[in-house]
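Troubleshooting: if your tokenizer reports a length mismatch, compare your output against this known-good record of 384 residues.
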Amino acid sequence: MQKINELQLAKELIRFPSVTPVDAGVMGHLEKKLKSLGFKTKILTFSEKNTKPVKNLYARLGNKSPNLCFAGHLDVVPPGNIKDWTINPFKPALKKGHLIGRGANDMKSSIAAFVSAVSKFISNNKFNGSISLLITGDEEGIAVNGTKKVVDYLRKKKEKINFCIVGEPTNPNKLGEMIKIGRRGSMNGKLTIHGIQGHVAYPHRAKNPVTSLIKILNEFKDIKFDKGTKDFQPSNLEITKMNINNNADNVIPAAASATFNIRFNNKHSSSSIKNKLNKIIKKIASKNKVKFEINYRVSGEAFLSKPNATTYMIRDVVKKVTKVNPKLSTTGGTSDARFIRKISPCLEFGLVGKTMHKVDEAVSISDLKRLTEIYQKILKNYFN
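Known-good structure output:
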């Protein structure tokens, strides 16, 4: 059985310009690698109205239980201005002990590390169980045709996953610092207030929507959702955009809108927060006699994966390899773990995330090698 080198595979994956949701051939390349190791694979293409089709991959080696799964994404964010990079972002380069390229950090290299770990593990060990990979091409985008739909597919097929490792770059500064066992929920809202347009000299003939919008947003910002919990930081609401679309200085606009995002812990649900915000909107809109539109988009609910024996085994492996005692954390943004946790216990552990989404995104070659070692030891301990 061939052994796959993690650095070589990482470079190969980075060469595909798979800017979300474009596949650019990267999923097929990974599929070939997995087939060469004996995996049975299935490319799953999903789409919805007004969205582009997205390729996903589910691969499994073995047909027995338990099934240990690794999840990740091969799509990347756009590189931005290529002139700001010291290299072509899709022609990976080695500099000062680092691999540079778009996706090197988030998260093609951790996928390469896991595949390499599997190749080394199965060449030296017989194991009783299954190893699987759930890889999407829609994590950095709107995330409707990716892991969410793969999870639905696996549930319908009654595919059992016993534990899942999501390979996101979880460590803030050095490898081994942090394992994610949950995430806060995320919800976007867009509020539009409709008033009556008019001349600023005759405000009694108009109805200024901006006044009502500001009052609502001020009340939003005054909300003290909670003080946090032992597992989660406090919930917070941030105003991200305001749009009045008025180029004249002497006109009261007809409408004004704002977009906001709420990150909430498990003391709340998206529904309970909607109810709280809607009461404020209705109260002020009614008092000021303006009409409103409010639309919400829920990216995910807050969740906490209760640590189990596998969680603690992984923590011990990370500590042994890195000599760092990892914190079990729920900090950061959302990830595809929010979908996977519906069918399996899971945690997240990968590389150091300092350069993700940045110009000259990079991964330490030493960290990549140690992550491969961590994943290999996890496989050995899990199937022992």
